Structures are given as structure tokens and as C-alpha cells.
UniProtKB/TrEMBL annotation:
It catalyses: 2 GTP = 3',3'-c-di-GMP + 2 diphosphate. One of its GO terms (molecular function) is diguanylate cyclase activity. InterPro entries: Diguanylate_Cyclase (IPR050469), GAF (IPR003018), GAF-like_dom_sf (IPR029016), GGDEF_dom (IPR000160), Nucleotide_cyclase (IPR029787), PAS (IPR000014), PAS-like_dom_sf (IPR035965), Rev_trsase/Diguanyl_cyclase (IPR043128). PROSITE patterns: GGDEF (PS50887), PAS (PS50112). It comes from Marinomonas transparens. This is diguanylate cyclase. Its cofactor is Mg(2+). Its EC number is 2.7.7.65. It is an enzyme of class 2 (transferase). Gene3D superfamilies: 3.30.450.40, 3.30.70.270, PAS domain. Residues 334-468 form the GGDEF domain. Residues 34-54 form the PAS domain.
Length: 474
């Protein structure tokens, strides 16, 4: 070896030693041959590839940027732009798929000396993730403040997680505490047939990852659905949907109540890393804010329109609904009738069995009414033990038959008091109906109330019909 060659080799060794000690990932490639001739230690650690595995620049691109369209439309124009020395952006910030299957966000830059192109890569994943999360969080909070649809808000969360963990598909299920079931909140990238199959699933042991996580109220990690007992009844469904691993986290309110379940699915067997768990925590806590806010909105609305004891429409809501229905009847020249109902001697029920048992009677009564009435009837609790029922498309005779049926059903029923005694009670009803083309709810109620008074006066447990032909509107 000549002295010059010796010096050159020594120089190269020193340069490599120097580059191996820097934390920045560095590589150089030969422009004419397209070969990658050197990668430093940081490069190997960062991307996970050895020089033998990515000896050619094309192979490198295919591995780290598997999407050919992205290579053609983003990376290649950037290189050409850079070569012309007029870069529209000096560094290219892009996503790189590493050998371990994770993708990292990097800032790439290169310089050219003769036939050699020197590349350096800076890992900006943490910064990028923090920025994206911040953006997703503020987008979500803005949507919450604007009362956007819950599904849209949850979609933002799901999309953010999927963006950070490219190989995952995520979902948010909502917990219905009354039925103990999970309903679909958002799962934009799971197949429809899968979402439909698990919609309304009852939580319990061995009900997939979400059903079990919600039931146990703790995180469930299933590495391989195909062999896990939690999935034994859903293994085929999961196979059809192409999911093999599923990690699920219960979503809890600030008070710890179960609100739903967040799930991350993968197409291959997989256990979560620390970063995955952190991502799941992030998603669950955002989803919790969105769901809790949505639920309290709904509760406020329910309180504004529902009677808290019976769950029926309250006076205000009954008037709104009844007015709309009456207007439709007037416009389509249909009949319309009103019933007013009052429990007989309700005071004595309270006195004999206690106020709480009186409440029980009112609750049961409301349930019985809902079952006995036709679907299009509008029912409301408009006073203490007073109920109103609008019957669209029913004339006075039909309404009287409905009223008679209610009276009879209730007279033959019993409600269990708190100390388990059978409480029997009766009701009185007044009927009014629309005559001609002019009518309003106040007038119908006034007439029905008059008839109800008559029913009370003439002995109770009976139905009386108002003389509507003498009303001011007839
Ligand atoms: N338990 C209970 N009682 C109520 C509620 N609202 C009103 N009441 C009671 O209902 C009773 C109504 O009594 P009254 O108006 O004298 O009528 P009544 O005893 O039903 O007798 P008649 O209507 O004449 O047959 C009162 O004792 C009220 O306290 C309620 O939400 N729960």
C-alpha cells in the first residue's frame, strides 16, 4: 500500500470513529452506483438495519418508505429540488418505518461531495408526537366546547392514535349502565360487519378485550386473540376482521365511573411497549372528557324535559310535543283527542303507606301507561298525580275507548309497596276532542279537566267525556 493510500484509509477510519461517536444518524451513499457505503452506529440503533440489509439506496427507500406514491410525490421531488440547490424546504420532515415495525418522525438532510452523498437524520418523533397530541387535544376541546357530535370528537381521538401507531386500528365503545352493554362510539377503520356484530354486546368475562376490560374495570392486554380465552367466542369474527392482538382500556369518569372502553387492535400478535401504554392513557383520558361532557349535556337536557320521578315528559315538554302533534292533525284534517287522568284518593295512599310508596305507585303507573297506550300517544306528567295524554288521529269515541281500557287495566293491577304489600288504586279520566278546524292544547286540556272533575264528582274510577261542541272553538 502506498503512503497516500495508507493516509487515505487512516483518514477514513478516523472519520468513521468520529461519526460513530455522534448521536446523529449518518449514512453516505454513492451517487453513481446507488450503493450505501456507510452507516454509523446511531443510524443502526435508530433504524435497526445493518449495512448489509440496506446496501442499496432503492432497497432502503422501499424498506423505510413502503408507499411508492409517497416516494414519488414527496421524497424524489425533494431530492431533485435539493440537488438544484434551490430547496423549497431545507430539511424533509417525514415518517420512517424502522425495522422493529415502529415508525419514527425524522428530519432528513443531505450534502453532496463529488460522488458521495452524506445523509443525516434527526429524530424528531417526541417533538412531533407532542405537537400532534397538543393539536388533537385542542381540536377535541374546541369540538367539546362547540357541542359537536360525540362521534366526531371520538373520531379525532381515534385518528390521532392511529397516526401515532400506524399499524393499529382503534375504537371507542360507550357503556350503557342501564343495560350493561357497550355501544359503538367510534371505530372508523374497523370493518362494518365487525362493528355491527359487537354493537350492544353485554359486558362480562370472556367477552373479548373490551367487554372483559369494561366488566373488570381494568386494562386487558390480549397478545394473541387466536389462543386467548377472552376471545374464544369471537375468534372467528376477529379472524374475519383481520385482527390478532387487542388491548383495551376502560374509560372512566373523574369519579371513576365506567364510561366506555378504548381498544387498539393489531393484525399480528403483539404486546404493548411503554410508549403504546402511554398512548392508550392519552386516548382514554381524552375520550373520558368527551364522553363525560356529552353525558352531562344529555342529563341536563333530560332534566329540562323529563319528569325526574317517572321519566315521562314533564309539563313543559308535554306542551311542546302536544302542540306539534295537534298542529299536524289540524293541517292534515285529522281527529285529535286529549285525556286527563288523576289517581283517586292518592293522598290516602301516601298517608297509609308513606310518601315513598306513593312515589312507587306513580312510577309503576307511568310504566303501565307507557305499555297500555298506542305508540303515537303523547304522554306527560303535568302535575303531582295528574297525567295528560294526547291521542293524534283519534276521535272522541276512540279516545273514550282508550281511556276506558286504561281505567280498567289500572283498576285490575296492583303495585308492591316498599314493605311488600299489594297496593290497589283506581284512576279517573276526562276526555276531550277536537271539533272543527280551530283548537289549541290549552282548550283541549281545559275541557278534559272539566270532564275529569265530573268523573271525580260522580264517584271516581270512571271516564267522563266533555261536551266539546260547546267549546269556544266549535
Ligand atoms: N308520593 C307522592 N305524592 C304526591 C306527589 N305529588 C303530589 N302528591 C300528593 O298527591 C296528593 C293529592 O291529593 P289531593 O289533591 O287531595 O287528591 P287525592 O287524594 O288524590 O283525591 P282525589 O283526587 O280527589 O281523588 C297530595 O297528598 C300530594 O301530596 C309525588 O310526587 N309523590
Amino acid at each position: 500500500m502506498t503512503q497516500e493510500a495508507n493516509q487515505h484509509q487512516e483518514c477514513e477510519i478516523q472519520l468513521e470513529d468520529f461519526l460513530d461517536s455522534t448521536p446523529v444518524a449518518v449514512a453516505w451513499s454513492n451517487i453513481s452506483t446507488g450503493r450505501i457505503e456507510y452507516i454509523n452506529k446511531a443510524f443502526e440503533q435508530f433504524f435497526g438495519y445493518t449495512l448489509e440489509e440496506i446496501s442499496d439506496i432503492e432497497i432502503w427507500y422501499q424498506r423505510v418508505c413502503p408507499d411508492p406514491e409517497y416516494r414519488q410525490t414527496v421524497i424524489e421531488p425533494w431530492i431533485i429540488d435539493f440537488q438544484k440547490n434551490a430547496p423549497s424546504q431545507k430539511n424533509l420532515k417525514t415518517r420512517i418505518l424502522c425495522k422493529d415495525g415502529f415508525s419514527r418522525q425524522v428530519s432528513i438532510c443531505f450534502s453532496t461531495v463529488g460522488d458521495i452523498r452524506l445523509w443525516h437524520f434527526t429524530d424528531i418523533t417526541d417533538y412531533w408526537v407532542a405537537e400532534k397530541r397538543l393539536r388533537a387535544r385542542s381540536e377535541m376541546l374546541e369540538m367539546v366546547s362547540k357541542s359537536s357530535a360525540l362521534k366526531d370528537i371520538l373520531n379525532v381521538i381515534v385518528k390521532q392514535v392511529q397516526l401515532e401507531s400506524l399499524s393499529s386500528v382503534c375504537s371507542v365503545s360507550l357503556f350503557d349502565s342501564e343495560t350493561q352493554r357497550l355501544m359503538l362510539g367510534a371505530a372508523p377503520d374497523l370493518p362494518n360487519f365487525y362493528n355491527q356484530a359487537i354493537e350492544g354486546i353485554e359486558i362480562g368475562m370472556n367477552v373479548g378485550s373490551c367487554g372483559t376490560a369494561a366488566y373488570l374495570n381494568e386494562r386487558v392486554i390480549v397478545e394473541d386473540i387466536r389462543t386467548h380465552p377472552y376471545w374464544q367466542d369471537y375468534a372467528q369474527l376477529a379472524k374475519d376482521a383481520g385482527v390478532v392482538a387487542c388491548w383495551s382500556d376502560p374509560i372512566r369518569s373523574a369519579k371513576g365511573e365506567l364510561l366506555g372502553a378504548f381498544a387498539m387492535y393489531h393484525a399480528t400478535p403483539k404486546l404493548p411497549t411503554e410508549k403504546d401504554l402511554e398512548l392508550i392513557n392519552f386516548a382514554s383520558s381524552l375520550a373520558s372528557i368527551a364522553i363525560e361532557n356529552h353525558n352531562s349535556h344529555q342529563e341536563l337536557e333530560r332534566r329540562a324535559y323529563c319528569d325526574s320521578l317517572t321519566g315521562l315528559a314533564n309539563r313543559r315538554s308535554f306542551f311542546e310535543l302536544a302542540e306539534k302533534a295537534l298542529l299536524q292533525c289540524l293541517m292534515s284534517q285529522k281527529h285529535c283527542s286529549m285525556l286527563m287522568m288523576d289517581v283517586d284518593h292518592f293522598k290516602s295512599i301516601n298517608d297509609a303507606y308513606g310518601h315513598a310508596s306513593g312515589d312507587l305507585v306513580l312510577k309503576q303507573l307511568a310504566k303501565m301507561l307507557e305499555q297500555a297506550l298506542p305508540d303515537d300517544a303523547i304522554l306527560g306528567r303535568i302535575g303531582g298525580e295528574e297525567f295528560a295524554i294526547l291521542l293524534p288521529d283519534r276521535d272522541g269515541d276512540m279516545a273514550t275507548r282508550v281511556a276506558e281500557c286504561i281505567r280498567e287495566t289500572l283498576a285490575n293491577s296492583a303495585v308492591k309497596s316498599l314493605d311488600n304489600q299489594s297496593l290497589h288504586f283506581t284512576v279517573s279520566l276526562g276526555v276531550s276532542f277536537k271539533v272543527g278546524v280551530h283548537c289549541n292544547i290549552d282548550e283541549l286540556l281545559r275541557l278534559a279537566d272539566k270532564a275529569l272533575y265530573q268523573a271525580k264528582e260522580t264517584g271516581r274510577n270512571r271516564v267522563c267525556v266533555a261536551n266539546c261542541f260547546q267549546s269556544s272553538f266549535s
